[in-house]
Amino acid sequence: MKVLVTAASHHGATIEVADAIARHLTSDGFEVVRKSPEEVDSLDGFDAVICGSAVYMTQWLPEAHDFMERFAQQLHKLPVWAFSVGMNGVPKHVPQDPSRIGPVLTRVDAKELRSFAGRYDPSILSLRERAIVRLAGAVEGDFRDWNAIDQWAESIAQQLKQD
Fold it and tell me: Which pTM was predicted?
């Protein structure tokens, strides 16, 4: 079974999550192709798709939006999983609404949309990005839960094996 894992990332944290998912599926015996969304020119030959994006201002990056738009018809015929990476380090008292991220998925019947915390490293952000993140009250650090990411990849592998 051939699986496409694609993800849009601004500072690399989401790419690292996509790579971890791809490695897990490969170790489970799947043929995995890892590409960025803008590099994908066809879904022919793929049996499943996992698409992810970093979240900025509660939105997926344009490259992920474009991917979902370009392949909307084909994605309706394939099992699709989607993930978002971001909203890390926001204080617990600030309400987070995962339904606000990835609205592009409304046209694609994804089996699951999973949100993972990301990484906030101010040294790799622009001045504007640092100001916005500071206003949101984010805390510096890497909040990615690699066990949760691995468990999600395993659940995808199990679902694919059942299909």
Answer: 0.84
